[in-house]
Design a protein that fits this description.
The protein is of the alpha/beta class. It has two domains: about 230 residues, 3-Layer(aba) Sandwich (Aspartate Aminotransferase, domain 2); about 130 residues, Aspartate Aminotransferase, domain 1. The protein is about 35% helix and about 15% strand. A seven-stranded mixed β-sheet has the order 1-7-6-5-4-2-3, with helices on both faces. Helix 4 links the parallel strand 2 and strand 3. Helix 2 runs parallel beside helix 10 and helix 3 crosses helix 9. The longest helix is centred in the C-terminal third of the chain and has 19 residues.
Amino acid sequence: MTSWDSAGHDPGGAGSVESWLVTAGRDRRFGAPLNVPPWPASNFILGDRRTYSRNDATPGWEALEEIVGGLEGGASVAFASGMAAIAAIFDQLPAGSLVVLPDDGYQGVGGLAQAGESHGRWTVRRLAVTDTAGWVEACGVADLIWLESVSNPLLAVPDLDTICAAARKRGAILGVDNTFATPLNQRPLALGADVAVQSVTKFIGGHSDLLGGVVTAREPRLVAALRQARGLAGATPGTLETFLAVRGARTLALRLDRAQRNALALAERLAHHPRVALTRYPGLPSHPTHEAARRLLEGFGTIISFDVCGDASAADAVCDGLRLIQHATSLGAVESTIERRARVPGQEHLPPSLLRLSVGIEALEDLWADLDRALRDAAARG
Ligand SMILES: *Cc1c(COP(=O)(O)O)cnc(C)c1O
């Protein structure tokens, strides 16, 4: 059982994160449906507090916000996607801001930052994830300090405790994209971040069937500003999507636990495979940020990035040869997915034979048999 300080978000008597995931967000009034049903509604009879659902959250979103808010330890605002959530944070920046991003990170955020820079809205500086002294210095001058709890796709874990403790410029926002760790493996707000982001599309949804995002913050003015940004931009979550996301969240702890065990075992085996040149997984002692991962993460996650021996075509051949593991982008779902990341626009700088594997909840030995066979077959064909 994950140790969990519910930080005051515990109306349901949930003493642990596993129980919270199952019980949070429900309507406990007599006769209410046990599960929060989807609310397909744009407008409401006037007089109640809801008028129009671009501005006034529906109960479905509120359930998702309650669940994630309790996990992250703050107040949550749900959005149409992870990127919509992140864009709302960037929207808070005054003109001429300085944005500091990690050198390894989600390409969508890189694209958003670049587009804003080209429109003269802010300037962007990049820092190595592990340059802790650089991040501490950046806190004193930047308006937005952006980090990922575990970087995508090199899986570097920043020294978030040290960075969050550094003095920040007045009004600055320190944001952490917590998608890879999930709030079960790290709670950035408790470490001192201002906002934590989940792409609900990934682990919280968990079934590759929706797009969604959530931002969580503690400062009420920031929460209100993010809600306002959502309404103004119309970046509202879909009714069906939030229904599915809440359903997915109920099993998050089970899925993460299972997939994480699979991932550690696969990483250890891949590290010794003759057709694998390099295996990156924060749980391996060989990983450059293994110490930070042990200190700052409850679990090492479900993503493994490994370089196949040979060039891009050797790695493509592995993807083509897999049968159980799906050749698809995205991550955090029940099914294992794999992709060669250097083929993704904005990620061309990565090692050409790097495969990012999102480990699912299938049987470990089936996953290993699939990987081992595809690696050997690709080598025999090459
Ligand atoms: C997928 C992802 C996003 C973007 O989320 P969407 O829901 O696809 O908009 C942001 N950050 C990380 C780390 C992601 O994996």
